[in-house]
Amino acid sequence: MRFTPFDASEFLDSEEAIAEYLAAALDDPDPELFIAALGDVAKARGMAQIAREAGVGRESLYKALTPGSKLRYETVRKVMDVLGVKLTVSTRSS
C-alpha cells in the first residue's frame, strides 16, 4: 500500500479553518508547531503573494517559516495581518 504525505495546506480553504488551525497550533507548547502551521497557511494562500503583501522577500519568508528558524514577532504580525487573523490573549480556563 502506498501513502501520500499529508499536506494540511490542502484543507485550509476558509478563514474559519485557518483561524482554528492556527489557534490549535498556538495552544501546543512547542513553538515549532505554530511556525509550521503558519507555513501551511501561507502555502495554502500562496507563499509568493503572502510575502509580497507582507513586504517580506519570498525566500526570507520560506526560511522564517521553516522549523528551527528564529521567527521574529514582526514577521508573524505581518503575515497574520495579510492572512486576516490575529493573536488574542485570554485567561486559562480550568
UniProtKB/TrEMBL annotation:
Pfam families: dnstrm_HI1420. InterPro entries: HI1420, Lambda_DNA-bd_dom_sf. It comes from the Bacteria. SUPFAM superfamilies: lambda repressor-like DNA-binding domains. PANTHER family: SSL7038 PROTEIN. This is Addiction module antidote protein.
